[in-house]
Design goal:
The chain is α+β, with helices and mostly antiparallel strands and 357 residues long. It has helices at residues 9-16, 20-28, 51-62, 67-74, 78-110, 124-134, 190-201, 237-242, 255-264, 308-316; strands at residues 6-8, 36-37, 44-47, 117-123, 149-155, 158-164, 168-174, 184-189, 205-211, 214-219, 222-228, 249-254, 269-275, 278-281, 291-293, 296-299, 302-307, 322-327, 334-338, 344-348. Helix 4 runs antiparallel to helix 5 (78-110).
Length: 357
């Protein structure tokens, strides 16, 4: 290749975001040899068609991929490369979760493994279900870690779990298997709780203890699980609940029928028409037929519109065969809960919708 078509190592470094020293290392390791090397000066030159490989190499190293794995990805086809990247990221996530658990246990041990403050004793399967249901209302937002957390409030005879992503608020109240006289409140890292849920589910009873910087889940014949406490203040959900307007319309709908209609709806948003005849899931296009669902309805007829990602999780986590939907106009927060059990309640915000539409 004529020298005029090649790039000196400095120019190639600028084009790819790699330093000259890194390019020399990758050349020596065989991952990215230069197109040509001047036999007298030893100066290295690179071709334009090497930019893509060099850029991919840099990005793979930025996600901490080992050199051997990098070479496998660079030499693989698109599908195989994607699979290898997914496997690498999954290992990183698993390793990070394991490191967090070990760090929490280590901090507790360095503190002398002080006895925790017992805040509740619950059946493992019940606690795991409640955690997974309420955590559907969380979100990972940059700079707002609290939105990915679960707020725990322990009071005599009850344990309340609450989460919100600002578009939904989900709360469930559990009755402890053993009553406690203690009160406690804190927001726990949602990812830690998700990681612990499978172990919790297999335990007959779980002791929840408050410890410095988090909670400790103690289970017979299983290792303790430590979940971190978040330092941010949880949104004032009690004020939100207290300030809700009057319910104007109530509809009780079979849960499975509503879920099926939402699953088959092709749009990102869904419009419900609630009237005395029942609940109708409106089509996305005029050519599609509406889906009419049987429902017991009281109050004024109205149309209301939701993001699918807001409505579906709220309905799917409801307890029991029927869900009650309580509406406060076309633009007010909607309460979705079991028709016969009120211990899991979700508030869902509709999207802007003109009343005359």
């Amino acid at each position: 290749m004529p020298p005029s078509e090649l790039m000196p190592i400095g120019v190639f470094a600028q084009r790819t975001g790699l330093t000259s020293s890194a390019l020399r290392f990758y050349a020596d390791s065989g991952l990215l040899p230069p197109a040509e090397v001047d036999p007298l000066s030893g100066y290295r030159y690179y071709a334009a068609d090497q930019v893509l490989r060099a850029t991919a190499l840099r990005r793979l190293r930025e996600i901490a991929m080992p050199l051997a794995a990098v070479e496998a990805v660079l030499d693989a086809g698109a599908d195989e490369a994607a699979r290898l990247i997914d496997e690498h990221v999954a290992r990183i996530v698993d390793d990070a979760a394991a490191a967090r658990r070990k760090a929490a246990a280590l901090k507790s041990a360095l503190g002398g493994e002080l006895p925790g403050l017992l805040i509740a004793v619950l059946k493992g399967p019940v606690l795991a279900d409640a955690v997974e249901q309420v955590l559907t209302a969380t979100a990972h937002e940059p700079g707002m870690a609290v939105l990915a957390g679960l707020h725990v409030e322990a009071r005599p005879g009850a344990l309340a779990l609450t989460a919100t992503d600002r578009y939904r608020l989900s709360t469930r109240t559990l009755v402890p298997a053993r009553p406690t006289e203690r009160t406690w409140a804190g927001t726990i890292d949602g990812d830690d709780l998700r990681a612990a849920a499978a172990t919790v589910r297999r335990s007959a009873l779980v002791r929840i203890e408050a410890v410095p910087h988090g909670i400790r889940l103690r289970m017979p014949e299983r290792a303790d699980r430590h979940c971190r406490l978040l330092s941010e203040d949880f949104p004032d959900h009690r004020l939100m609940l207290a300030s809700l307007g009057e319910v104007g319309t109530r509809a009780t709908v079979p849960k499975e029928l509503l879920l099926r209609a939402l699953e088959e709806h092709p749009g990102d948003c869904v419009t419900l028409h609630v009237c005395a005849d029942g609940v109708t899931v409106q089509p996305s296009h005029d050519d599609d037929p509406p889906v009419q669902l049987p429902a017991a309805v009281t109050g004024a007829a109205l149309r209301i519109r939701f993001e699918m990602t807001t409505l579906y999780p709220a309905v799917s986590t409801a307890i029991g065969p029927d869900v009650m939907v309580e509406l406060r106009g076309h633009d007010g927060p909607v309460t979705i809960r079991s028709a016969d059990r009120g211990d899991l309640t979700t508030l869902a915000m509709p999207v802007a919708f003109a009343p005359s539409a």
